[in-house]
Amino acid sequence: MTVMSEGVSQELSSIPAEIHIENLKSGVLLIKLNTQSRRINARIKAGKIEKAEKLRKEVEKEHKEIMAAFEKYYEFSDYYFFYSDDSDAVLMDKDYSLLLTSADRKSVIPVEFAENSRYLLMLGLHPGFPSADKYHLLLSHLSEKGRRKLPRSMPRSFHTRSSKLFCNNYDFDKAIRRINERLQKVDIFYRDIQK
Hints:
Strands 1, 2, 3, 4, 5 and 6 form a 6-stranded mixed sheet that branches. The chain has helices at residues 17-26, 37-45, 49-73, 87-92, 172-194, and strands at 28-33, 78-83, 118-125, 135-143, 146-149, 157-159. The protein contains 5 helices and 6 strands. The chain is globular. The chain is of the alpha/beta class.
């Protein structure tokens, strides 16, 4: 699992929230899918083949659920998926040929994105509670200086927990629907202020 504060600059983006919301709306959201390949490989190396296969299947199911939730509920901006194993290539080297469009794993034609219009959504443990057992989705800005935290007035952290108590299931449909709704509300708020 990725601890979400890891690798994200502690600096806040200097761009105001109203500009971020416009940039995201006309830009692209890159969604990082955790492969957990290190954990899987460690289990294989330790001879725990069945446990490795079980984890691989869980991760694959999680990916399908996340992709399906985006296809059903996310309309705010364009979006693409990529695997965590490809993070450096996609985020640093801007190798967009590794991006995927949907659950059927279709690669996209390599494209260029405007520098201030790239945003990252990654699944990991909440930065304030790294020992918690529930995932969060964290939204950050991909600037020319690397990842930056969004201003507090921007939605940036989203729960994925199921409504069932004592259950380690995740409700990605609810989380993605909420992301879309919150981004739309912020967009409407800033458009109303400008009137």
